[in-house]
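Researcher: We're reviewing a set of sequences before deciding which ones to prioritize for further study. For each one, I'd like a predicted 3D structure that I can look through quickly. This is NAD(P)-dependent alcohol dehydrogenase. If possible, include the structure in token form so it fits the rest of the review sheet.
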Amino acid sequence: MRFDAAVLRSYEGRFAVEEVVLHAGPLDGEVLVRIAGSGMCRTDLAVRRSAGRSPLPAVLGHEGAGVVVETGGQHTGLRTGDHVVLSFDSCGDCPNCLAGAPAYCDSFAALNLFGGRREKAARFTDAAGRPLAPRWFGQSSFAEYALVSARNAVRVDPALPVELLGPLGCGFLTGAGTVLNTFGARPGDTVLVLGAGAVGLAAVMAATAAGATAVAVERHPERLLLAERFGAIPLPAGSADLPGRVRRLTDGGARYALDTTASAPLINDALRALRPTGHLALVARLHAPLPIEPGGLDRGRRISHVCEGDAVPGLLVPRLVGLWRAGRFPFDELIRTYPLGDIDAAERDVEAGRVVKPVLVP
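Model: Here's the predicted structure for NAD(P)-dependent alcohol dehydrogenase, in token form for your review sheet.
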């Protein structure tokens, strides 16, 4: 089977939309999906900054959504014609997967970042027959088609605009899941969100939907306006005495804080802005040591790293869809669509802050 995909051949180079070849269809437990849209996440672009760790050439993309066109075997739980949102891959057999924590799968890095499922022969190549890296996050959805494990495909109502739903599988899942799952935010709680990108704004929406008070910290005025529109109290990053301002706004400190920035100064500000027993969750990868200032973890305050919003995608994606249908999680207002051929323009717009969530449409 031949189709178009955006191939990244070097860590410094541009994406190139070219013909690729799938040499075998889905095996037992797999499905072939015609991609209707795939969100661009900063994790896709982080491949450039972690040069050498993720193999190239590769087709990236891990926020895909589309229609099942072929199933492998009788045990996928899906049928041809089903509309699905694609999320991260997991083994299903390790202790964390069996305990309902697939984001902490023992094989998460291998399956999603560094090589995928081992296969006897390359099933995915370029037009000349040269192998492409195995499925990125179990998907490689910057393409017209994606071969995925049925484990990371979530069926959705075919009446929904499936081309817009892909970001529910990662970016929006991470922000909303951290608020709804990790924190379990409720009315009366306060949630401080550092960074109002796709993940942070999803967290703001989820906090508001849960009846909590959100405070958003962001350096771009346009993003602050968005956060305010979605119910947050806006605070410009770099404000004098940020912890003090948060404590005054939240009657003694935030119960929860979510950091999307990986900025050590902001992380320390967030700790000082927490009330006693408060919880700070980090969702961005740290690229430098994180010195915690004295007193930051006093009085029961704690800090943890959260992966994929502590989500079971098959449970959280339908919940977010339900909130969207009720007008309480308007994620579609963050999306701008681009033809797949304009993938480089989408990347430039993300890096420049001109768009929150690009979605590539094959």
